Amino acid sequence: MLYPSGTPTQPEIISVALSKLTLKPTDVFADIGCGSGSVSIGAAPLVRQVYAIDNRDEAVHAARENIKECGIRNVSVLKGAAALVLEGLDIDCAFLGGSKDMEQVLSILIKKVPRFVVSAVRIETATIALGILKKNNRLKELLQIQLSRGHELACGTMLKPENPVFLIVGGVRC
Fold first, then answer.
1. CA–CA separation, 68 vs 146, rounded Å?
2. How many CB atoms within 10 Å of residue 86?
3. pLDDT for 31-67, tens place per residue?
4. Per-residue model confidence as pLDDT tens digits over 84-109
5. 11-171: CATH superfamily
6. In the chain, what are the domain boundaries?
7. Residue 12's CB: how many other CB atoms inside 10 A?
């Protein structure tokens, strides 16, 4: 797998995020700030169509190569500013893993997408997303996930923590 700059979303975080979206085989899914395409690759078998969106050349290249390597055919990689690309798409659910214009992207998701998850490693990002979703009555759930992995140490095993991740689940409240 190719990884552009930035921290790739850990597989366990992808699993939790996708489970919160309750994906259906008829869904059209957007992976916003797709980076390596790992979230798109995880979602592809569960939905009809995936749009992997990123504005960075290195990310678009990495996502295309990784998706091709996995033999996945229902993912379209789109290069451009997320807010502009999203305006022209009809989607059912989304994962927002990164975007320079997060506030604008969230305003679009709030208007047109019934289910979405925002992933944040920075407290400031989580705070902004949380505030926007609360203000618009679209906050469903806030999770903070701390993952540790076992590593050998002196004939034993130690746990080495990964960065904690916030998942902010948004959508239409029941």
1. 31
2. 24
3. 999 999 999 999 999 999 999 999 999 999 999 999 9
4. 999 999 999 999 997 789 999 999 99
5. Vaccinia Virus protein VP39 (3.40.50.150)
6. 11-171
7. 13
Instruction: Evaluate whether 170 touches 140 at the Cβ level (below 8 Å).
Output: yes
Q: Identify the sign of the CA torsion 77, 83, 87, 90.
A: positive
Place of tokens 């979703």: 133
What is the rounded average pLDDT of the residues 3-22? 90
**How many Cα atoms within 13 Å fall on the side-chain side of residue 44?**
21
Strand partners, 115: 93, 171
Is the pLDDT assigned to residue 9 strictly greater than 70? yes
Closest CA to 131 of 148, 147, 118: 118
Amino acid at 141: E
